[in-house]
Amino acid sequence: MRMAFIVIGALLVLPACGPPRENRIVIGSKNFTEQLVLGEIIAQQIENKTHLPVERRFYLAGSYICHQAILGGRIDIYPEYTGTALTAILKRQPSSNPGEVYNQVKTEYARRFPLEVGQTFGFNDTFAIEIRGEDARRLGLKTISQAAAYTPQWRAGFGYEFMERPDGYKGLAATYGLRFAEAPRIMDLGLLARALKDKQVDLAAGNTTDGLIAALDLFVLEDDKRYFPPYEAVPVIRQQMLAHHPEVGQVLNELAGKISDDDMRQLNYAVDGQHRDVKDVVRAFLQKKGL
């Protein structure tokens, strides 16, 4: 499944993607539900406020594919997370200060790439180290440090990108002294929560805004050593497109601070848990927010 997404993403960023599109805005996203929702929010906001035609190119695998796509001009905007931009793209050391991380990412993206980092949407989707709620209650576990005593008997499941990125598995395991019964299973992000619930794995790295955490009775262990940096969601925007359409930047600024952690969990659950159409979910959300 992961390789299929990578192949599809690679095909979508190849040069033969179509004719010039000066008056068409192309929105990309990564390949999990929250990114689909955020991509759709960006798309509908632009359609509603500017009347520019919008093309959606969602499910472009992970951060690296999206970054290459926007650098190559194949997409104009995609949602990113400040901690991911800092560590995975800029290859900088993590920091626990949200303001410092945002300012460093914004400054470096403008200096090193022809990219503008927009204002934060308002929520922080940091990694969530999850176990089953029944296990947390039975063993009295609240923190990752406490769980480390049990992980030698557990199986872990992680996304491909989490295994590779500098703020991912290797650093987490070193920080907390984690060992597992076998090598971690590498799975598509959309399958991890269900795999944990179905006892295919015993610990997984998800996201704090995952709508299925409560629905599947999962428990998020506290990152008591503050390993993970902040992951505030932001739009990454191609500067050349903004030069032609400054109104796009203006309408995206209207989304700043409008999506809380709880809002994002509810949006994700509406799509993942209730299986509602993402366009309908986003349309109702924007109306509720007066956007």
- Remind me, CATH topology of the largest domain? D-Maltodextrin-Binding Protein, domain 2
Distance between the termini: 36 Å
CATH class of the largest domain: Alpha Beta
- Rounded to an integer in angstroms, the radius of gyration calculated over CA atoms is 19 Å
Task: Tell me what portion of residues adopts beta-strand conformation.
Answer: 5-15%
The secondary-structure class comes to: alpha/beta
Return residue spans where pLDDT drops below 50 for at least 5 consecutive residues: 1-20
Order of helices and strands: HEHEHEHHEEHHEHHEHEHEEHHHH
Write the layout of secondary structure elements.
Elements: H1 2-12, E1 25-28, H2 33-50, E2 54-57, H3 63-71, E3 77-81, H4 82-89, H5 98-112, E4 115-117, E5 127-132, H6 133-139, H7 144-147, E6 156-158, H8 160-164, H9 169-176, E7 185-186, H10 189-197, E8 203-207, H11 212-215, E9 218-221, E10 233-238, H12 239-244, H13 246-253, H14 261-272, H15 278-288
Helix pairs in contact: 2-13, 2-15, 4-5
Task: Produce a short descriptive summary.
This protein has 291 residues and is of the alpha/beta class.
Account of the 3D structure:
The protein is an alpha/beta fold. It has 2 domains: 24-124 and 230-288, Periplasmic binding protein-like II (D-Maltodextrin-Binding Protein, domain 2, 3-Layer(aba) Sandwich); 127-221, D-Maltodextrin-Binding Protein, domain 2 (3-Layer(aba) Sandwich). The chain is 46% helix and 14% strand. It has helices at 2-12, 33-50, 63-71, 82-89, 98-112, 133-139, 144-147, 160-164, 169-176, 189-197, 212-215, 239-244, 246-253, 261-272, 278-288, and strands at residues 25-28, 54-57, 77-81, 115-117, 127-132, 156-158, 185-186, 203-207, 218-221, 233-238. It has a 5-stranded mixed beta sheet. Helix 2 (33-50) links the parallel strand 1 (25-28) and strand 2 (54-57). The chain is globular and about 55 Å long. Residues 1-20 have low confidence and may be disordered.
